[in-house]
Each structure stands twice: as C-alpha cells, then as structure tokens.
Amino acid sequence: MYSFEPTEEQKIIVDAAKKLALKEFRSRMRDADEAGEPAPEWTRAGWELACCPPISRGVRGFGEHSSLTGVLTAEELAWGDLSATLALAAQTL
User: Fold this and answer.
1) Does 61 score more than 80 pLDDT?
2) Taking 60 as the threshold, does the pLDDT of residue 73 lie above it?
3) Which of 30, 35, 29, 19 is nearest to 77 (CA)?
4) What is the pTM of this model?
5) How far apart are CA 59 and CA 24, in angstroms?
6) Cα–Cα distance, 88 to 85 (Å, whole number)
7) C-alpha angle 80/18/31, rounded to 5°?
8) I need a surface site. Which of 7, 49, 59, 61 has the fewest CB within 10 A?
9) Taking the alpha carbons of 38, 41, 44, 45 in that order, is the dihedral positive or negative?
10) Angle between helices 27-35 and 82-89 (to 10 degrees)
C-alpha cells in the first residue's frame, strides 16, 4: 500500500523551501520586479537548496529525489513567488 505521508528527508527539504520562500521570495521579489532588476540572492539560495533539478551528493546537492519531492518543494517556493519558482524549475523542463 502506498503512503502519502512525506518522508523525513522530504519534510526537511520542504521546510527549507518554505523558509526560502518567506525569507527571499516574498520579501524581495516584489521590489526586484518593480525595479525591473533581478535579485541574484534568490537564485543562489534556490540552487543551494538544490530543489530544481535534483543535484547529486557528489557536487554538494541533496542527491536524487523523487518527482513528488520536487513538486512539494516547488509548491512551497511558488507560494513565495511563482515567477522565481518557474525560473528555477525551467532547468527541469
């Protein structure tokens, strides 16, 4: 039987994404959008989270994770700012 309860690793990654969305996306993206200039901090922070695409542990990523983990992470980030999330996720298209 399938379990829809997130694993401990998924909970950690989703929690980190939520903190990133609150700290970086919600607080800075509106100002960056109105100024017409990107804010490089969120890009670095998003890649450090290694949410999109999954990055192997050999290059300091979280390792391969499931599509479900990616969706849960993207959902949290999109709460912060959809366009920033799509910019990070575009690499997986």
Assistant:
1) no
2) yes
3) 19
4) 0.71
5) 24
6) 5
7) 30
8) 59
9) negative
10) 90
In tens, the pLDDT along 2-52 reads: 777 888 888 988 898 899 888 888 878 878 778 887 777 777 777 666 555
Residue 43 tokens, joined: 């890009």
Convert 23-80 into a string of H (helix), E (strand) and C (coil): HHHHHHHHHHHHHCCCCHHHHHHHHHHCCCCCCCHHHCCCCCCCHHHHHHHHHHHHHH
47 vs 42: CA distance, rounded Å: 9
Find where tokens 């990654």 sit.
13
CA separation for the pair 75, 78 (Å, rounded): 5
Amino acid letter for position 12: I
Distance CA 9, CA 83 (A): 26
Q: Tell me the C-alpha distance between 92 and 26, whole Å.
A: 23
Rounded alpha-carbon distances, angstroms, from residue 34 to 30, 39, 81, 91? 6, 11, 14, 25
